[in-house]
Design brief:
The chain is α/β, with parallel strands linked by helices and 487 residues long. The protein has helices spanning 8-12, 61-64, 88-91, 94-99, 110-137, 151-158, 248-262, 275-288, 302-313, 320-327, 343-352, 371-378, 397-402, 433-440, 457-470, and strands spanning 25-31, 40-45, 48-52, 80-82, 106-108, 161-163, 170-172, 176-182, 190-197, 203-208, 231-235, 266-269, 297-300, 338-340, 358-361, 385-388, 407-410, 413-416, 420-423, 449-453, 475-476, 483-485. The chain is 31% helix and 20% strand. The longest helix is centred in the N-terminal third of the chain and has 28 residues, at 110-137. It starts with 7 loop residues before the first helix and ends with a strand. The structure holds zinc ion. Residues 85, 87, 185, 211 line the site of zinc ion.
Length: 487
Amino acid sequence: MKSGALTPHCLLSSEAVCYCPPRMAKLHFWGAVGTVTGSKYLLEAGGSRLLVDCGLFQGLKELRLRNWDDLPVNPASINWVALTHAHIDHSGYLPRLVRSGFLGPIYATSGTADLLEILLPDSARLQEEDADYANRKGFSKHQPALPLYTEQDARAALKHVQSVGYGKRLPLGTHLSIEFASAGHILGSGFVTAEFQDDGGRPVKVLFSGDIGRYNEPILNDPSPVEEADYLLVESTYGDREHDHHNPKDRLAEIINSTVSRGGKVIIPAFAVGRTQLLVYYLRELEEEGRIPVLPVAVDTPMGTSATRLYLKHKEDHDPDMQRFDESHVNALSTRHFSLVHGREGSKALDAARGPSVIISASGMATGGRILHHLAHYLPDAASTVVFVGYQAVGTRGRRLLDGEKFVKIHGEMIEVRAAIERVDSLSAHADSTEIMRWLSGFKRPPRTTFVVHGEPRSAQALHDRIASTLGWPVVIPVRGQVVDLG
Ligand SMILES: [Zn+2]
């Protein structure tokens, strides 16, 4: 095989070891290949190791079990971690990494660093609850069942986090540097460009897209244009789909007005970070435009409350509209009759209050959290409406309600569904296929190789084909465990 060439063997092998002659730089695909969770990519360059993203595998048991596998290298041998954003499928393995011996800094933008303070301890509590549950039910192989990590491990990992501003090149050792550019997906999300020098001293850029956000959405900046990279890893969550591009405000106004005319409440299960803030922004606009009446609006999720404060704090992430609110000291993430609910008593008081109102609560798929007691209260009420605004995975209560089931079990009780069940599809935080192509069209030269990652096989293949046919770029879909020589 010729020196410097990307060999077909490297690109197509599913073996853990690449048989290329040793070179200066290698890229290892450990997670979010063939699936959308467990993002982890190791870049070896100049004798050092940079792990980009350190996510948990989530969803099906077969995927979750991968979190218990040892990493292919000793965690103590990894020098640095860089995170594209705080979502658990990109950050949730950090406590385990640190517990297994990783000693270095974890670099993230300021917004990501703050969100990790909320998300990692929460993830640890879920791990601990799962282990407790397994012990009580006696279905664990291990006696006793242990959590993947504890809240203490999460706190230990947080001590390694160091924040870095967007657009600031950070040298790591002598041969490598990283830089973040805003990705517009959630607060603090960034594209990470790692740059190293090849054996001829030429700069080589590897760009990790993380999750790509939406264009023309309020609050956060659009995905930053990127002009070049030698190697590109691009996400493909919606590689085979287009979002509904109707204005979500029209649908929300329609649903709210018809519920108000029946005298009911609007209950919205929503993801606490990102979608909750976007919903409140739209509700404020609809009120100001006189398209809905001024109603009590409550955000009833402790994480949503904390996240809303962080969204207001991190002005570096704000788009021009949001900046205008900042300058005029108007809170854009609030309505006229707005509350961030504290404590369980405040939460219960919402259900006792009479008259129409809007309650936004988590979890987004109605699998747990405070949304459950609101659902138990209002699902039997034909005047009320439950509105789903995010993806509802198979097997969740959210999915069963959307599928039209007439009874759902909540806290052990069968609850009759008489409320209207609605969905608003256009509120996804991920770019769709056309939006990903729009971002790629900013490149002034094609990357030497584009790796399509972070997608189910069908989505990844669809994006692969679209890039190959529309842009004519060299593009591959890597497999888990693959190692590619970057020459
Ligand atoms: Zn994400």
